[in-house]
Structure formats: C-alpha cells, structure tokens
C-alpha cells in the first residue's frame, strides 16, 4: 500500500518556480521573522538572528523576533545590541507551537517567516518566497527545503557526506514537489512563510500533537487555503550530532504523525481533496513501518529455527512470485528516486529507527495524548570515537539471532536432504540479507569523533588577503564561522602565528577581518579569526550562509543511483559495523567485574605463582613486583598522583540540566592505559527547583551502571549545595561513564511525566578527583605512542625533549623535530608542548 501511495505521491513533481514581486519595493509587504528557541546556546542562535536582520528586504518593513522560551538575560542583551526584538512568555505550555502562538498575539505583520534557531537564511529568502503569497490571496504557506550544512549521524559515521543522499533528501528533494502538485505541501516548522490571516482562521498553530507543523498544514488545507513548495535551498541548519539525538527527533516525528492520524484523520476531515487525503495518509502510514520491518528481519528465522512455514509454498515457487516484484520495485524506485535516495539505503534508514518507533506510534494510535515535545539538541561535540552500545542493542541482538538462524539453516541443509534444499536456501538468503542490513545499522552506531565547534563548509568564494602592506586576491578552500582555509600562490610567505587580514567577497562594503595563521602548507593557509565585531560577524555569515547561491550546487555532487554499487556500499558498511561491534563486545567482556573476576582470581593466582616459582617470568615484571610495602589506609604511595578533572574539561561547556519527572544525563571520561585508579571522589555542585517535593525527590550518582550514592533533594539545598561522593575505584576502567539521575516529583497525586518545570542543575565546575598509580609497562617500541602519549588521556601532552649537550648538531635537531611532530599529530586536538632539557634526565618519561 505504501509503495503504491508513494507512486501516486510523485506522479508529477511540480517543480514550481518563484513568483516575482512588484518592481517597486514600496509595494512589498511588512514581514515578521519568528526564531523560536528554548535551551539552545547563544552561539547556535546568533548566526540565525544576524542573517535574518540582513535579509534583502526594506528595513522598515522587516521585524525580527527572537522567541525565547528559556527566558535568558544574555539573549535579551544580544537582541538589544543587534536590533532584534526579544519576546518571552510566563510558561512553556505547548512548547514550540505555544511559543509561536504567543508571538502571534504580540505582533502584527501579515506575513510571518519562521526559522528554527539553527536554520540560517540566505539574503534572498523572502524574495524567493513572498511572490507566491502576494500574487495569490488564498496562498497560506510557502515552504522551502530543510538543508543541512553539517553531516547527520549516518553521513558522519559512515563518511558518506555529500556522496550519498541523506535520509531527508527524498522528502525535500522529491516528495514535497510531488505533494505540491496535489496542493498538499506540508509545513515543516522552519524555512517557511505563512499568512497570518490563514493561521488565525484555524485558531493558531496546532497544539494537539507534537508535530504541530504538519498538523497545521492539514487544517489550512481543510479550510481551502493553498500551499506552495519552492525547491531551492534558501536556508541551512545543523544536523543532529549523534545517533541517539537523531533517533529521538525521529521518534517525535513518528509519534506526531500517528497522533494526527487519530486526531484529524485525513479521510474523515472535511474540505480536503482526494489528492490531499492520499498524500497525508501516506505520510502518516509511512511512520508505522516499525512492526512490518521487525517482522521482515525475523520472518525467515521462524522456519530456520522452528520449522514453521510462514508461507505455505516451496522455495522455488515463492522465488518465482516474489523475485519479479522485488526487482521491479528496486528498478522503479531507482528510476524515480535515484537522485534523492539510493537503492537499499531505505532499509538501513528504517531499520535503525524501526525498534524505537514501534512503542510511540502504537501508543499514540491508542491514546494520542500520550506524546510530548522534545527539543532536538544541536551544536554539540563528540569527544571520541566510540560504539554506542545502548542505541545499538536491538541491532546486535538481531545480529546474533540471525547468525544462529544461519547456523541452524546450515545444519538443516546437511541433514534434511535435497527435498527441502530450495526452501532452506531461500530462507538463508533472506537471513543473509537481514544480517547485511543489521550490520550496516551497527556501523551507524559507531560514533565518529566530532570536535570542531564550527562546521567547515567546502566553498570557493573570492577573498582578498592583506599582509605586510601587500594585497593578493584568491579563493577559499573551506570556510567556517571561526576560520578559513585559503589557497595562496606561495605559502612560504606565511608563518604559523602571523596575523593577516582577510576580506570575504571583497567589495567597497567589506571590512578587513584579522586572523592568525594556524597552518601553512602548499595547498593553502588556514586562518583562525580573531574576536569578531558585529559587523565582521555579519560579513562571515553573509559569505558562508547568506549568499543566494550558497546551497544551490550541493545536489549536483550526488551521483545517480546504481543499485548494484549501492548494494556493495551497504555490504561494505555491514562488514565494517560487524567488526566494530565484535571489537566493542570483546572489550566489554574483558572488563566484566564482580563474580566472574572473583572466580578467575584463584586459577590466575596459581598460574602466576607457578611461573614465579619456576623463574619463567619476564625481567621487567619481576622488577615491577619488587615494590615497597603497600601504604597504610589513607596514605598515598610515593609514585601516585592526584588528578582533578572538571566536567567542563570533559566537554560540558554548560551546566547539566535534568528535567521532567525522571531526568538523566551521562558524561564519559577515560583513564590512561598505564594508570590504575586507587581512589576516586566526585566533588558535586548542584541546585534544584524549589517546586520539588523534598520527601519524594532525589539525586543519584551512577558509575558504569553501578549506583554510588543517592540522596534527597530538600529545601536546604535548593539554592545550591556541594557534596563529596566516594566512588568505588574497582569500577573504573579505561573508558567510563558518570551518570546523574534525578527523580523529581511535584505532587503526590497523578503527575505529568513530561512536566518540564522540574529541574536539577549540575554545575560544570563539579570535578572528579582521581588518585592514580602507575602500572608497569614494557619498554618496547611496538607500544608507541605509549607510554609517552595515551589516547585515553584528554589533557595537553607534555613530553620533555633531552639533549646531551647544549650545542647539538643539525641532524640531532632534525631528529628531535621529527619525533615532536609525530607525537604532536598523535595528540591532535589536545595540543602538545615539548619542554627542552640539557644534560639531565627528568623523573618522567622523555625523548633523549
């Protein structure tokens, strides 16, 4: 059904062109810009506000409103400094929809452009969209694509950014154009312009579901209003940074569409055309794929494991009926959707989400009021590569079950004889395909490190460089909010640390921006901008985001779909994901604590005693065993060190805010490979909402899933308190997770689990105090870069370089430089320093 509805939806993609505005700008209407925000940091919101203020529109007819549901003073001060209007409200009722509805009551422009706070518009946005609304008095909505200039978790973890169309490209590249033919363009909550009169007629933005945008569009269409889709990216935003955040966002979409199906079923809503009904119904039905997808991934196991025939026919007969349909569907979708969705990738995208949307969509169909609105986190960092075992749990469980099915199928082939060989083989081929898809999902769950605070966009825009009184013109290689890489004819003229001036898209209005050279190499120099004034910041935003053609060429880089090549890509990622999972699993099993370790202690001790007794011990280990007596309780051994690690140093740039009835947050941290924790404490600084019930509310500290301490949140500590939490050092390994769990209650009767006025704030100045003892290590070059540098150590690398004499020759200098460069590259984002000593060895490790 979904396949046929999909064909109907894209029967004739409209490809609408922008409608020109009147030649005289005096005839252009007044436009209000709404930028809703809740808990996003100011650095994410600033570019959007500044870009909105610079839209090509008569300034007296443009008003920019920052709708701040977080009610933050720094946002108020920022708006006052740049000329935007800061709007707040007393509560956060109905989340984003309520925020916009409140702003509607306080503003007056007939046309309202809405941008999510991380969606930065180009200067031409209003000129590309307002013509449709001005020329058609029944036009209520003009939507443009949601374009993302940063990679989403699929693109970053699989390294397919700008090579393979992302998950949203099919909807914004093709389906919305198809909807437009049926006058069924969906409102997507951002990068759109709406008519105030139309919104007021339907009672404001819909608040009954968590996908208020699509629900609002449905009600507009039911009242006879028109919609339009302009398929040119005229704004760009940040994609979700992690797979868990991505899944959370999609859960909200899936729940919301299921809610609309219950609240305003398109087949029973009066005023819709049949084309509109089918387009809306297909969108809602699509998000119910969770259960069918799970059935598809497990169906052949019914036969392989239990001998149950789910299709009562021989394998060859099933193949004869199914194969033509499957091949036709793949071929047809490749022809229709190939530019926007490559073959077999839909299976990966849907399988990743399938397990997580089953419960929300099913519950929403039973009771649509069960949903809540969650804000998608943007602008965060991923401080290291890691396999997200929590999000991947459904995938690896299915992976194991299907592997067991393959083993069972092989045994059946061996012992069942030729009579059932075709049926067994068909189910094994099906299972093999399922293993490939699940393996690719596990690859997506392998989070790749992302430490840049600002995304670099590859773009070749003209620039002028001024240095030592000389000006030369060139182009950028890439550009970000904080710096640029620029092609130069002779990079040797520039040294690291030089301060140069650059004009982006040089013109009479351009200002010279100062930047420090951070890298100089043949292909160009990399600059880090110094502190930017508002005018300079606007110039960077215009060069990076504001140009009318900033994003028009991005789709050109997508190759046409080749089904066999796409299958090969998915198979490659499947093998890579399986390998990463098995490595993670082996590491996890090696760290099993408690009972298993105690059971193994006796045999291991006996083996070690035998080796020591017979002299078969490595000299280095024997030397390490000859240590002084252990220190008394409370004392610290001479070779132990105490290290303090603030949550701020672990990537928590802002205090951690725990909300709702049960709020939790996790902070990863690591310990060097050559150190063991002998004592650990958490120095906790916190405060909480005064509305919490003190006899029911509590805060718990958990280390690696083992509870350490739980204590009541009382009126005595609501304004801020400190607590020292002792941590069992036996629980700490190389990679660890510190979790805060807040049980927060405001009534003894029925309470809303999504009630967001409950909060506990953990200061990012809280810190871990770790007493670390060194472990004996082999003096082997094969262990490099250890012990000098350990990837688990997040601190600055400090490695002494020792010279025998004060006047080493050129070859010795060269050798020292090469070694320092290599260690510096290993340290990467941490940074490195190499203090020099002459004729004396330090107590620590050193390069001599």
End-to-end CA span: 72 Å
Q: What coarse outline follows from CA principal-axis ratios?
A: globular
Strands in their spatial order, largest beta sheet: 3-2-1-4-8-6-9
Quote the average pLDDT: 86
Number of DSSP strands?
Answer: 33
> Helix segment count?
21
Percent of residues in helices = 25-40%
Query: Approximately how much beta-strand content do the residues carry?
Result: 15-25%
The radius of gyration over CA amounts to 30 Å
Taking the sheet with the most strands, its summary is: 7 strands, mixed
Low-confidence stretches: 377-382, 610-635
Counting helices, strands and paired strands, the structural category is: alpha+beta
What structural keywords apply?
single chain; 848 residues; alpha+beta; 7-stranded mixed sheet; 6-stranded antiparallel beta barrel; 21 helices; 38% helix; 20% strand
